[in-house]
Amino acid sequence: EKAGFDHFMLKEIYEQPKAYRNTMMGRVAADGRSVHLKEIGMTPEQIRAIRKVHIVACGTAYHAGLVGKTAIESLARIPVETDVASEYRYRSPIITPDTLVIVVSQSGETADTLAALREAKRCGARVLAITNVVGSSVSREADDVMITQAGPEIAVASTKAYTSQLIAFYLLGLYLADTLGTRSREEITEVLTAMQQLPEQVESILEQANVLKQIAENMAKHNNLFFIGRGVDFAVAQEGSLKLKEISYIHSEAYAAGELKHGTLALIEEGIPVIAVITQEALYEKTLSNIKEVKARGAHVLGIVNAGMEVEVAKSVDEVFTIPKTSALITSALSVVPLQLISYYASLARGNDVDKPRNLAKSVTVE
Ligand code: F6R
């Protein structure tokens, strides 16, 4: 059942190209110029009436929601807040009938996420669920349901479900942008064209798994490390850090690259590994200057960069891992893949049970 892979997690990492294709299938028009989301029952008029979006989820799904915030805000220009479901209800969120609440849940059974969904409905908001499980509680109770076509996810550490959630958010952002007229047909087509190339680009990252294994084995010798990034790269850094903690039990923190100097820089000492995600050209100079700050304190920096920037970034870091170039907006669907593999191989190097990490369950049905 593991189809020749040593672990479900590895199998699921390798299933991502298929998961991307399946999640896009039937949702991108044949001419590649628009998105159809038949599962969304909102009329164009109802979409135009949305004043704000709340994205609510837990763990890895929350991290997908952070990327989703950027996608929706930048494409559709609707203000978005992303919240951890276990915090959302207790901050007296301002949920009004013109709020679209998006809940994200692989299993569709997470208690906190379900409770947030119910609270949103009680306040009269429309609820859209992004879930991987047809017939799950979340899918039954939401008004609209986008199913991520990742296929069953067995490993406790979520990989293909997360990346499929990203694909769902990109499609949703484009769909909203098209309806609202915030992006031109050319811009929408450009992103969709880039999205169609993602599966092959993921394959090309997977082909370099051995390089990442080597990197991970070195990292597994350390007890602390940092992930840094700006914008969506920070969102991916947070996911990379969670994945590493979850299965390798190595302590790590994800930091917004520019925020380090406000305290955390004190923890940087000789030899500490820092993984810097640097894919956004507009932010890259700034992140490089943050890298110089940690390098000056002896950190060993791995840069995850996109093709075209690798030569320049190589001058400031110790190691570079290059991912293929794509549209800036959707790079997270690529940049997270090396981080998943690093976690996997670090866990393996430490002799852990990769698929069933200690203290954790696949589906969390308690609050
Ligand atoms: C981490 C992980 C968890 C889940 C979280 C939410 O790898 O899998 O953080 O993402 O428990 O689960 P779902 O998406 O089923 O609501």
UniProtKB/TrEMBL annotation:
It is found in: Cytoplasm. The keyword Signal does not apply. One of its GO terms (molecular function) is glutamine-fructose-6-phosphate transaminase (isomerizing) activity. Signal peptide: none annotated. Residues 43-182, 215-357 form the SIS domain. Its main location: cytoplasm. Its EC number is 2.6.1.16. The keyword Transferase applies. The active site is at residue 362. Keywords: Aminotransferase, Cytoplasm, Glutamine amidotransferase, Repeat, Transferase. It catalyses: D-fructose 6-phosphate + L-glutamine = D-glucosamine 6-phosphate + L-glutamate. Catalyzes the first step in hexosamine metabolism, converting fructose-6P into glucosamine-6P using glutamine as a nitrogen source. Homodimer. This is Glutamine--fructose-6-phosphate aminotransferase [isomerizing]. The gene is glmS.
